[in-house]
Design brief:
The protein has 893 residues and is of the alpha+beta class. Helices cover 49% and strands 16% of the residues. α4 (84-118) packs parallel to α25.
Length: 893
C-alpha cells in the first residue's frame, strides 16, 4: 500500500482519510448525496386539484348559476336575485380542493422521509487507520471502501485490491453476466476493468476501492437526474379504484336520470307568459332546468367517494411510519398491505429466531471435546487458518467470523499478526451454495489451502486430523470421536464449523446463538392468527430441530419426531414438484437449505394458494425474495442485493418484527374497511335524500354547499380519524384475509344498508312530523320552497351531520364482539378530530346569526340549546341500533 493522489487530495491507502481530510474533501467535492428529483411548484400542484371531473362539473354549475343570477339582476331586474348560491359553491369547492391539497402534501412529505431512511445504508470504510461504518451519505472522494459478496457499490471509484471479484453491472450496461474487476496500483490509469460504479452489485469475491466521484457526479447520479418517478399502484389501490369507479358510475347514472326526469317535470309545469317578453317567458323553464342540473350535480357530489383516495394515502403513510418505528422498514408500498394477508412465514434461523450473538462455547481439537473455559491453548495451525480465512474484524463483519476471531483473542492470539503473514494466491468466498470458504497462500515455498465451513463439506475433503500431541494422524482413526462430537454439538443447538489446512482437519468449533426471548410468544401469536411458521436454515438437522422445539415451531411430540415435518435439502430434492405441493403444508423445518430450495418452496406454496412471507439475507436469496408475496430482508446481516430484492427490511433482524408487521398490515386493511363502511353509509343517505327528495315534493333536502361541507368535515376528517385507529389484539386471533376477498364484506353491506335506512327514516320523520318536538312554529309543507322553512331544514341538515358524528365511533367496530369505544381514550388524535367535527358544525350553524351570509350560503339559522340537545339525543341512538345489528347479523365473523 502507498499514497495515491486524487486531484489535490493525497490518500494513504493503508491508513485512509483523516478526519481533517474528510472535511476537506466534503467541502471540495461534496458528500455522497443524490439531489432528489425536482417537484412541481406548490401552486401547480394545487391547480392540479381542479382537474378532478367532479370539481369541473361544480365549477360549471357555479358559472351557470352566476350567469342566471346576472340575467335576473341586470336584465330582468328581479329583486330576489342573489349570488349567494354561486358564492357558496365556489367557497365549498375552494375548501374541498385546499383540504385535498394539504392532505396529499403531508402524505408526500412523510413518504419522502421514509425513503430517506430506507436509502441510508451503512458502509465499511477505512478512516484514521481503522475500519468503521459510516452512512452512505457521508462518504467523500478519497475514502477507501471495502466490498464483499452481496454489497452494493456506494459511489464511483477505482479498485485497489481484488480477489475473485465480480460485479453485476446490468443496471448500468445491461450486461446479463457479472464482470470481473481487477486492481490497478496506478489509479490514473482508469478503465472498464478496474472501475466500479454506484448502484452495481458485488456478485462474488471481495475487494477494496477508492472513491473518485460521489453524489450527483457519479454515473448513477447523472442517470437519476434524468429520471421521472411514478406513483406505485398497489393491489389495494386497484381494488378500491374499481370500487370507486363503480360507485361513480352509479352516481352519474342516477344524476342523468334525475336530470332528465326533473327537466321533463319543469317543461310540463311551465306556463309561458309571452306578453312579458320572450326572455322573461322562458326564464321559469331555464330556472327549472338549472335546478335539475344543480340537483344532478349534487347527486354526483354525493356519490363520488372523494375521501377514499386520501384515506388510502393517509393510511399507507401512517402505517409505513408506525411500522418503521417498530423496526419494520417498508420498501414497496404494496408490502404494508400484503403482509397483513400472509398465511405462511418462511423464516431464517440465525439472527431472526436467534439473537445473532455468536459465541464459541465448544471445540473439538486434537481429537478431544472440550468446553471453551477448559481449553488451555490453540494450535498455531488453527490460529493461522482462522486468521487468514476471515475478512472480518472482531466486531465488524460476518457474525460467525467475528465469533471465531473473538475466540482467538480470548486465548491470547492476535489474528492481525497472522492475516497478512503469507502471500495470497487465491480465494473462494463463502456462500449459501458452497457452505465453505477457502484461501490459498504461499507458505514456506509451498501452496497451502486453509478452509472452513459446514462439517459435511470440510470433513469429506480431509484424510488426516491434527492430534493433541501435534502429530497428523489418519482421520479414520478418530471417526467415532468425530461422530460423537457432532451428535453432541448439534443436540445443543450449536452451529458447527470445521476448520482445515490442506487435507488435515484442525478442529470443529461449536458456536452458540441464543434464542430471542420473545420468539416463542411471537410464534404462538402466529398460530393463533392462522399463520403457519416454517423454519428454513443452513444448519444441520439436529441443530435445526433443537431450535425449532425451543421456538415452538414444532409444537408436540409427534410433530417433533415425524419426518413429514422435518426435511433436509437432500430430502427435498428427492420430492417431485407435484408431490411437493401435497406435502409442503406439513413442512415445519428445512435443514441445510440452499437459496434455490427457498425459491422452490415459495413456488410450491403459491400453488396451494398461500400468501408467503419469505426472509433472506444472502445474495442468492434474491430470487426467492422477489418471488415471494412479501420478501423480507435483514437490515443488520442482509446483503444489499437481498435488500434490493425485498419489499420489507427488518432493521433489527427480529422475527417478532415480522409478526408486528402482520399486525399493522391487518390494521391498515381494517381501518380502510371502517372508513368505507362509514363513507358509503353517508353517501347512501345523502344520495337517497338528493334523488328521492325532489320526486316527493322536497326540491333540495340538502344543498350543494351543504353536501360539499359534509364531504369536507365528514369524508376528510373521518379519513384522518379512522386512519389513526391503533391495532387491536383480537385482529391476531382471526384467520388471514384471503387475497381475492372483496373489501366490502357481506356483513358490511348489510350494516351499510340498515344504518342508512335507519337514518333516512328518522331524518324525513323529523322533517315532516318533528315541528312540535323541536318547537318549530312554521312546519314544512311538501311541495313548498325549502328556503321558506330554514329552521326545519337546519334541523334536518344538523341531524344528518350529528348521525355521522356518532357513526364514526360506531364504525370503529367491524366485528360482532368488538366494542366501538375500545381504546378510544388512548387515541387522542381520534378524539381531537371528532371533537373538531362537532365544534365546526355547531360553529357553522350558530355563526349564521352573527354573520348572515353564512346562513344564506348554507341555508341555516341558529338553533336553541333545547334543539341541540334533542338532536344529540336522537342521533346517538345509532350506536345501540348498530350494536343490535352486529348481534343479529349472522354474516359477522
Amino acid at each position: 500500500m502507498s499514497n495515491i493522489a486524487i486531484e489535490s487530495l493525497t490518500v494513504n491507502t493503508a491508513h485512509g482519510l483523516t478526519d481533517e481530510q474528510v472535511k476537506q474533501s466534503a467541502v471540495q467535492y461534496g458528500r455522497n448525496v443524490l439531489t432528489p428529483p425536482e417537484r412541481d411548484p406548490l401552486w401547480k400542484q394545487f391547480l392540479e386539484k381542479f382537474n378532478d371531473p367532479t370539481i369541473i362539473i361544480l365549477l360549471i354549475a357555479a358559472a351557470v348559476s352566476i350567469a342566471m343570477t346576472t340575467l335576473e339582476m341586470f336584465v330582468l331586474h328581479m329583486e330576489e336575485a342573489s349570488y349567494v348560491d354561486s358564492i357558496g359553491i365556489f367557497l365549498a369547492v375552494a375548501l374541498a380542493t385546499l383540504c385535498g391539497f394539504f392532505s396529499e402534501l403531508k402524505s408526500a412529505r412523510e413518504f419522502e422521509l421514509l425513503n430517506k431512511t430506507k436509502d441510508d445504508i451503512p458502509i465499511k470504510v477505512l478512516r484514521n487507520g481503522k475500519i468503521a461504518e459510516v452512512s452512505i451519505n457521508d462518504l467523500v472522494v478519497g475514502d477507501i471502501v471495502q466490498l464483499a459478496l452481496g454489497d452494493k457499490v456506494p459511489a464511483d471509484g477505482t479498485m485497489l485490491y481484488t480477489m475473485n471479484f465480480y460485479i453485476d453491472q446490468s443496471v448500468m450496461t445491461g450486461e446479463s453476466m457479472p464482470v470481473e474487476k481487477t486492481a490497478n496500483a496506478d489509479i490514473s490509469d482508469v478503465n472498464d476493468d478496474n472501475s466500479v460504479f454506484r448502484g452495481t452489485m458485488v456478485s462474488d469475491g471481495h475487494g477494496t476501492f477508492v472513491i473518485t466521484k460521489v453524489g450527483d457526479n457519479t454515473r448513477y447520479g447523472q442517470i437519476a437526474a434524468n429520471l421521472v418517478g411514478s406513483d406505485e399502484d398497489t393491489p389495494l389501490k386497484q381494488k378500491l379504484t374499481v370500487l370507486a369507479n363503480y360507485i361513480s358510475y352509479v352516481g352519474m347514472t342516477a344524476a342523468g336520470l334525475i336530470f332528465t326526469v326533473m327537466s321533463i317535470f319543469a317543461y310540463f309545469r311551465w306556463t309561458p307568459v309571452w306578453e312579458n317578453g320572450t326572455l322573461e317567458a322562458i326564464l321559469p323553464l331555464l330556472e327549472g332546468i338549472l335546478m335539475a342540473f344543480v340537483i344532478a350535480v349534487t347527486v354526483v357530489v354525493v356519490a363520488v367517494p372523494e375521501g377514499l383516495p386520501m384515506m388510502v394515502s393517509l393510511s399507507l403513510a401512517l402505517n409505513m411510519m408506525k411500522m418503521a418505528k417498530e423496526n419494520c422498514l417498508i420498501r414497496k408500498l404494496e408490502a404494508s398491505e400484503t403482509i397483513g394477508s400472509a398465511t405462511v412465514i418462511c423464516s431464517d434461523k440465525t439472527g431472526t429466531l436467534t439473537q445473532n450473538k455468536m459465541t464459541v462455547t465448544w471445540t473439538f481439537i486434537g481429537g478431544k471435546t472440550s468446553e471453551l473455559q477448559s481449553l488451555d491453548s490453540v494450535p498455531v495451525q488453527l490460529i493461522e487458518s482462522i486468521s487468514i480465512n476471515t475478512n472480518s474484524q472482531i466486531n465488524i463483519g460476518n457474525p460467525t467470523e467475528c465469533a471465531m476471531l473473538r475466540f482467538l483473542a480470548d486465548k491470547g492470539a492476535d489474528y492481525a499478526q497472522h492475516r497478512e503473514k503469507y502471500k495470497r494466491i487465491n480465494e473462494v468466498s463463502h456462500n449459501s451454495e458452497r457452505k465453505m470458504s477457502s484461501v490459498e497462500v504461499e507458505k514456506d515455498g509451498k501452496s497451502v489451502v486453509f478452509a472452513k465451513g459446514a462439517s459435511e463439506k470440510i470433513i469429506p475433503l480431509c484424510k488426516n486430523i491434527l492430534a493433541d500431541n501435534g502429530n497428523v494422524n489418519p482421520i479414520t482413526d478418530y471417526q467415532p470421536q468425530i461422530d460423537e462430537a457432532l451428535i453432541y454439538a448439534t443436540s445443543q443447538a450449536l452451529r458447527v464449523i470445521a476448520v482445515s489446512q490442506d487435507d488435515t482437519l484442525l478442529a470443529l468449533i461449536g458456536i452458540s446463538d441464543p434464542m430471542r426471548a420473545e420468539v416463542p410468544d411471537a410464534v404462538n401469536v402466529c398460530h393463533s392468527a392462522g399463520v403457519d411458521v416454517k423454519m428454513i436454515t443452513g444448519d444441520a438437522k439436529p441443530t435445526a430441530v433443537a431450535i425449532a422445539k425451543t421456538a415452538g415451531i414444532l409444537t408436540d411430540d409427534a410433530n417433533r419426531q415425524c419426518e413429514e415435518y422435518i426435511w433436509t435439502s437432500e430430502e427435498l430434492a428427492d420430492i417431485g414438484d407435484d408431490e411437493l405441493v401435497e406435502k409442503i403444508p406439513k413442512l415445519k423445518v428445512l435443514a441445510r437449505a440452499t437459496p434455490m430450495d427457498k425459491l422452490r418452496l415459495v413456488k410450491a406454496l403459491h400453488k396451494t394458494g398461500a400468501v408467503v412471507a419469505m426472509t433472506g439475507d444472502g445474495t442468492n436469496d434474491a430470487p426467492a425474495l422477489k418471488h415471494a408475496d412479501v420478501g423480507i430482508s435483514m437490515g443488520i446481516t442482509g446483503t444489499e442485493v437481498a435488500k434490493e430484492a425485498s419489499k420489507i427490511v427488518l432493521v433489527d433482524d427480529n422475527f417478532k418484527t415480522i409478526v408486528t408487521g402482520i399486525w399493522w398490515g391487518r390494521t391498515l386493511y381494517n381501518n380502510i374497511q371502517k372508513f368505507l363502511q362509514f363513507q358509503l353509509s353517508v353517501n347512501v343517505v345523502a344520495l337517497t335524500c338528493a334523488f328521492f327528495g325532489p320526486l316527493f315534493g322536497i326540491s333540495l333536502p340538502l344543498t350543494v354547499p351543504q353536501l360539499l361541507w359534509i364531504n369536507i368535515i365528514m369524508d376528510t376528517f373521518a379519513a384522518l380519524a379512522l386512519s389513526t385507529d391503533p391495532p387491536r389484539a383480537d385482529s391476531m386471533k382471526r384467520k388471514p384475509i384471503p387475497r381475492d376477498a372483496s373489501i366490502i364484506t357481506g356483513s358490511m353491506g348489510i350494516t351499510i344498508l340498515m344504518i342508512s335506512l335507519y337514518q333516512i327514516v328518522i331524518l324525513f320523520a323529523v322533517l315532516m312530523f318533528g315541528a312540535g318536538l323541536f318547537g318549530i312554529e312554521k312546519p314544512f309543507v311538501l311541495g313548498e320552497d325549502p328556503k321558506n322553512y330554514i329552521e326545519s331544514f337546519t334541523v334536518f341538515f344538523t341531524l344528518f351531520v350529528a348521525f355521522q358524528f356518532w357513526n364514526i365511533i360506531n364504525c370503529r367496530a367491524l366485528h360482532k364482539n368488538e366494542n366501538p369505544f375500545s381504546m378510544i381514550l388512548k387515541n387522542k388524535l381520534f378524539l381531537m378530530i371528532i371533537g373538531l367535527i362537532g365544534v365546526v358544525q355547531v360553529g357553522l350553524v350558530q355563526i349564521s346569526g352573527i354573520f348572515p351570509p353564512v346562513g344564506q350560503i348554507f341555508r341555516v339559522q341558529p338553533l336553541s340549546a333545547r334543539e341541540w340537545l334533542i338532536i344529540a339525543g336522537i342521533s346517538i341512538t345509532i350506536i345501540p341500533f348498530a350494536w343490535v345489528m352486529r348481534m343479529v347479523n349472522r354474516a359477522y365473523d
